[in-house]
Design a protein that fits this description.
Layout (H helix, E strand, L loop, with lengths): L8 H4 L22 E3 L1 H7 L2 E6 L9 H14 L4 E5 L3 H13 L2 E7 L5 H9 L3 E5 L3 H14 L3 E2 L5 H7 L1 H10 L4 E5 L4 H13 L10 E7 L4 H4 L21 H10 L3 E5 L1 H15 L5 H15 L8 E6 L7 H7 L10 H9 L1
Parallel strand pairs: 2-10, 3-4, 3-6, 4-5, 7-8, 7-10, 8-9
Antiparallel strand pairs: 1-2
Bound molecules: ligand F0G.
Length: 351
């Protein structure tokens, strides 16, 4: 055990992951994230609501579940460098695990479209950070080409080990809560919803589809390729993490929604920001705007009658709010500037 005292997910789920004793475990204590009941937010939505706090992973997003696997396997294969395209979280995670393994890391990001915290993470961990004048989809096309022609390992979710690591979130939900009626999660490339479906199928090996939750894939209106069933050439949304127009896992993601008897829903930027604030105000949970898309999607599905009153719903909050302090400051309560006197504070605090 590389990390005594820390149940990293490779050790916790070793029997369900493609690792052997020859695989070096590159771990930072990922997985085993809190699953928190959200009664006040749930009452507002009319469901039995639970929040899976993936922002509690080491670099603040669910990407760490996949990255511990991808980097461990890269180290096993004696790779010297890894590369990824990213809307921010993948780059932060890749930079962290590459640093821990002593590998060189190159990240390619859409310039000006990444939350500050994510960029800062990649920078301080020593990745080579390349900002392009283009979208995430452009960045992914370029890194795929480079990984085909150079000795560098691609750690985007096209890397099969990424999804293997990410499926463990589904194991944790079943172990703690059993099988909920719905699991809602934000969808960009469609990797995570694919991984969740795989995880639920492996966790619940016997029985029929009713033993598995229905999956609700939630997208932003401006980048809703799965909902529209076609590419979005110029994706745009306040939820920059899922500002993706050409989902590379679209086929598997569509199958996950269909086989689980769930579906996809698109929500506006206004709805995303509204629920981003409600999650924080009603539950004290601070996620990034993209993650709030899952709760906004549940609200939509409730209004449409797809999700029925009283059903048990898990919303996966994929990334931590501190990733994107700018969005919170812009939306949160005003800061009141006062003289340094007891009287001034008293007047404001007690009316
Ligand atoms: N939520 C967050 C916070 C994300 O960062 C992402 C994807 C998703 C949801 C969507 O997951 O792509 O598997 O459907 N972020 C990637 C990145 C694209 O580069 O960090 P998906």
């Amino acid at each position: 055990m590389t990390h005594p005292g820390t149940a990293c997910l490779i050790d916790r789920y070793r029997h369900r992951l493609p690792v052997t004793t020859a695989t070096p475990v590159i771990a930072l204590g990922e997985g085993s994230t809190p699953l928190v009941q959200a009664p006040r937010l749930g009452a507002e939505l009319g469901v039995d609501l639970w929040l899976k706090l993936e922002g509690a992973n080491p670099t603040g997003s669910f990407k760490d579940r996949g990255m511990t696997m991808a980097i461990s396997k890269a180290a096993e294969d004696r790779a010297e460098a890894v590369i990824c395209a990213s809307t921010g979280n993948t780059s932060a995670s890749a930079a962290a695990y590459a640093a821990h393994a002593g590998l060189r890391c190159v990240v390619v990001i859409p310039g000006g479209k990444i939350a500050l915290g994510k960029l800062a993470q990649a920078q301080i961990m020593g990745a080579v950070v390349c900002a392009i004048d283009g979208s995430f989809d452009d960045a992914l096309r370029i890194v795929r080409e480079l990984a085909e022609t150079h000795p560098i390992t691609l750690v985007n979710n096209l890397n099969p080990y990424r999804l293997e690591g990410q499926k463990t979130a589904a194991f944790e939900i079943v172990e703690e809560l059993g099988v909920p009626d719905w699991v809602a999660l934000p969808v960009g490339n469609g990797g995570n919803i694919t991984a969740f479906w795989r995880g639920f199928n492996e966790a619940v090996t016997a029985g029929d589809a009713s033993d598995r939750p229905r999956l609700l894939g939630c997208q932003a209106d401006g980048s809703a390729a799965m909902v529209r069933g076609e590419d979005v050439l110029e994706p745009e949304t306040v939820a920059t993490a899922i500002r993706i127009g050409r989902p590379v896992r679209r086929v598997e993601a569509a199958a996950a929604a269909r086989e689980s008897e769930g579906g996809f829903v698109a929500v506006s930027d206004d709805e995303i920001l509204r629920w981003y604030e409600r999650i924080a105000r009603l539950e004290g949970v601070f996620c990034e705007p993209s993650s709030a898309t899952s709760v906004a999607g549940v609200a939509r599905a409730r209004a449409a009658g797809t999700i029925v009153e009283g059903e048990r719903v898990v919303c996966v909050l994929t990334g931590h709010g501190l990733k994107d302090p700018g969005s919170a400051s812009a939306l949160g309560a005003e800061v009141i500037t006062l003289p340094a006197t007891r009287h001034a504070i008293e007047q404001i605090a007690f009316g």
